[in-house]
Amino acid sequence: MYQLNFPNGNVQTYNSPNELVNAARLLGGDAKIISGKIYAFVPKK
Length: 45
Known about the structure:
The structure is a single chain. It contains 1 helix and 4 strands; from the N terminus they run ββαββ. By secondary structure, the protein is an alpha+beta fold. A hairpin with a 5-residue loop joins strand 1 (2-5) and strand 2 (11-14). The longest helix has 10 residues, at 17-26.
């Protein structure tokens, strides 16, 4: 599982990196890899 961490403390998990990146884009941002299978949500300015 891949984990997407949001600035407000929420965490979502996804089955694949593609799902995670697509979800981040739909939410108006991008996913930046932190380590291994953990990503941070980066809102677009």
